[in-house]
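Example record used in the benchmark description.
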Amino acid sequence: MSGLTLHGTTGRFTWRMLATVLAGQSVIVFFGALVGRAVAATGPDGGRSTAYLLVGTGIALLCLVAAGLLRGPWGVTLGWLVQALTLLSALVVPMMLAAGVIFLALWVVSLVQGARVDASEEQRRHR
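Model output (structure tokens):
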């Protein structure tokens, strides 16, 4: 897959797409944290409810930090970490697996298609 970047900077269109994915993901991850807290509070491991909320909120904030850092070389790497953490959150809230897979797919499509659009824009500028 060309355009599947793990580290480094991306083009303008690509980082905008990636930032949009991460912004939407932050909302869903935060809602997942609220669900995890509520489920834990009503179950036998009620003592963990605050921890689930804090960790989930931390991941949601990390989404926003990664979106802000996408213009730099570490933004994409942090974005990949957020994708992994979102998938891992399914250990607490199983439905987060579906959300994690959807956002991972959006992340990969944004990287690949964004790189194509950026290359096309660059080629058009040099004509």
